[in-house]
From TrEMBL:
GO terms for biological process: proteolysis. One of its GO terms (molecular function) is peptidase activity. It holds the Pfam family VanY. It comes from the Bacteria. This is M15 family metallopeptidase. Residues 36-163 form the D-alanyl-D-alanine carboxypeptidase-like core domain. InterPro entries: DD-CPase-like, VanY-like_core_dom, Zn_M74/Hedgehog-like.
Amino acid sequence: MNRSFYLQLVNPWHPAMEIPDSSQLAAPHPDYPDILMESRAAQALKSLLARLDAFDRIVPVSGFRSHQQQQKIWDDSMKENGYLFTKQYVAIPGCSEHETGLAIDLAANAPDIDFIRPDFPYTGIYGQFRALAPSYGFILRYPAGKESITRISEEPWHFRYVGVPYASIITNRGLVLEEYADSNKRSVS
Ligand SMILES: [Zn+2]
């Protein structure tokens, strides 16, 4: 996979274009073999969790999803939660970062984990994870205060792999991926 794959912008106006095949997927957490990411992203997350010795406290909730799986999550949420909630927290099928294998939803390990809005705190080991994430290639994709740009409500649990050093550049500049993609476009033209 090349650099443009890892930096691809996926949102309602930019569908997921490049989808890894099954040979390019791997499990970032050994206790959750069915939750997969693109293999380089998976390796990066695994290294970060190993560094924090956090495999028992930080668990993956959702990683790679096929288009059909994203469609099912959307349909189920529409039935259960209605349109207003669903469009805030569930990406339109075809336009989810989870379809690229570059996104992961994480939770604090607990008996009842909410699948759509898992609890991933800002303090303790979770805060340490957040502080180290950019140096492992991960950004917090939907931060508070950027909803007018991302059109997704704050999601403290959703991390997106963009690679090193881009995650640090994006995080240090306080940007979301839409803004970073836009600033790159401007500097090229
Ligand atoms: Zn997510």
